[in-house]
């Protein structure tokens, strides 16, 4: 273990402050903890008045390109709530930007691609060899700065969009109800679709490795639009790339003795739970449409689970939130479990209820662990 400590010193990139609360990392690896760790997707978001103030009048992607702003926005929720992890403020759409596409944030509409991919010929507009350090170095800087400023309080999570989810945005040009333009590619242009998914996968692997080198202590892959695919298309157009990402990132990290837990969150893809639990990710994130006990059964103790309270449950009174949390924690069990919502917080949510959620997870899980 002295050797192990020595190895850790050698590979520690930038002399970061010592981690004080590693509950989230231990739960990700299925180890024992004193309480169930908790964080929220979109915890750095518009439900916080200080977030709205910091973001006011500034372009969204300009904010993403400012390491100081990203650091401040990442830290804001930690000042209010005893979350067990932080997620770097950024967006999944910085990857299509790095590949040469324009993406604007339009107020009231969300992210918009003025010139989306329409036909396979349009793939020629994408950069073939993306210099990830040059195009996305601002994210790496934000991570390094935040890892220092977090002062070892909790681990810092890096993230990316999954290939299918990013492909969907690049073809749709923004959010969509049906994703029929992107799905049209899958049926009509399967080879071009696979080519695009491979291009995205290559950039994503480099991007995640860069995030770890910069200081990210865990990685989450968001396949937010997995649910629009059925089981057959998911197996063909998403799962192989999700697996490839985890395999390649882990193999590369192993070369330098590093090991960072990876989380896959394929929203609304519970038809793929068995497959996802055998895809080299330590943690499978769950949306709220699946029952905790059945998720445990179907993943057979192979992975840790993360989730999955309906975000809208935060509209309940606080005592009701506590009851809902207790049921959820009982359903998942306290080992190999990271509490979270089944998707991100909404802008109209009451920060006090977010606090009640975090407190309920800690309180109920501490009691349950003592009773074991
Ligand atoms: O001005 C604003 O603040 C706009 C709201 C916002 C925020 C706070 C957007 C626009 N992005 C973000 C930050 C963000 N995006 C984070 C930060 C860290 C945190 O969670 O605290 C993360 C992890 C993301 C990831 C992201 N962006 C996803 C995956 C997660 C998910 O919600 O499924 C997706 C799909 C996006 C695209 C995106 N960015 C923003 C919006 C409104 C959307 C969704 C658009 C749509 O599909 O309609």
Characterization of this structure:
With 372 residues, the protein is of the alpha/beta class. The protein is 49% helix and 10% strand. It is built from 16 helices and 9 strands. The strands form 2 sheets. The protein has a 7-stranded parallel β-sheet with strand order 1-4-5-6-7-8-9. The chain has a two-stranded antiparallel sheet with strand order 2-3. The longest helix has 25 residues, at 190-214. It is globular and about 60 Å long. The two termini are 29 Å apart. The model has no long low-confidence stretch (mean pLDDT 96). Bound molecules: coproporphyrinogen I (1CP). Coproporphyrinogen I binds next to strand 3. This is Uroporphyrinogen decarboxylase. Pfam families: URO-D. Pathway: Porphyrin-containing compound metabolism; protoporphyrin-IX biosynthesis; coproporphyrinogen-III from 5-aminolevulinate: step 4/4. Its main location: cytoplasm.
Hetero groups: coproporphyrinogen I
Number of helices: 16
Overall mean pLDDT stands at 96
What is the C-alpha radius of gyration, as a whole number of Å? 20 Å
Number of strands: 9
Principal-axis shape:
globular
Q: What structural class is derived from the secondary structure elements?
A: alpha/beta
- SSE run: HHHHHEHEEHEHHHEHHEHEHEHEH
């Amino acid at each position: 273990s002295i050797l192990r400590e020595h190895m850790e010193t050698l590979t520690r990139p930038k002399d970061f402050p010592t981690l004080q609360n590693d509950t989230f990392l231990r739960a990700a690896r299925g180890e024992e903890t004193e309480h169930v760790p908790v964080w929220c997707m979109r915890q750095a978001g518009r439900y916080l008045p200080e977030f709205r103030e910091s973001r006011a009048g500034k372009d969204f992607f300009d904010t993403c390109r400012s390491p100081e702003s990203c650091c401040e926005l990442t830290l804001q929720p930690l000042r209010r709530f005893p979350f067990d992890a932080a997620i770097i403020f950024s967006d999944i759409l910085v990857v299509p930007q790095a590949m040469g596409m324009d993406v604007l944030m339009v107020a009231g509409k969300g992210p918009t691609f003025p010139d989306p991919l329409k036909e396979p010929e349009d793939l020629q507009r994408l950069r073939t060899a993306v210099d990830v350090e040059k195009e996305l170095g601002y994210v790496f800087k934000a991570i390094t700065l935040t890892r220092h400023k977090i002062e070892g309080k909790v681990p810092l999570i890096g993230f990316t969009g999954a290939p299918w989810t990013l492909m969907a945005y690049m073809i749709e040009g923004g959010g969509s109800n049906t994703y029929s333009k992107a799905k049209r590619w899958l049926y009509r242009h399967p080879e071009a679709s696979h080519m695009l998914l491979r291009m995205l996968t290559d950039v994503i692997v480099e991007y995640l490795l860069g995030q770890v080198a910069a200081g990210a202590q865990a990685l989450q892959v968001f396949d937010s639009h997995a649910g629009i695919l059925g089981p057959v298309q998911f197996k063909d157009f998403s799962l192989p790339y999700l697996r490839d990402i985890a395999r390649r990132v882990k193999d590369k990290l192993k070369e330098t003795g590093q090991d960072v837990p990876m989380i896959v969150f394929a929203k609304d893809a519970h038809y793929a739970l068995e497959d996802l639990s055998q895809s080299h990710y330590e943690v499978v994130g769950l949306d709220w449409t699946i029952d905790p006990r059945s998720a445990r059964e179907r993943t057979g103790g192979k992975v840790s689970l993360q989730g999955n309270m309906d975000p809208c449950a935060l509209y309940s009174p606080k005592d009701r939130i506590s009851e809902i949390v207790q049921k959820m924690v009982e359903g998942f069990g306290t080992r190999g479990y990271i509490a979270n919502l089944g998707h991100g917080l909404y802008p109209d949510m009451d920060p006090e209820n977010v606090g009640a959620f975090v407190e309920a997870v800690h309180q109920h899980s501490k009691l349950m662990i003592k009773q074991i």
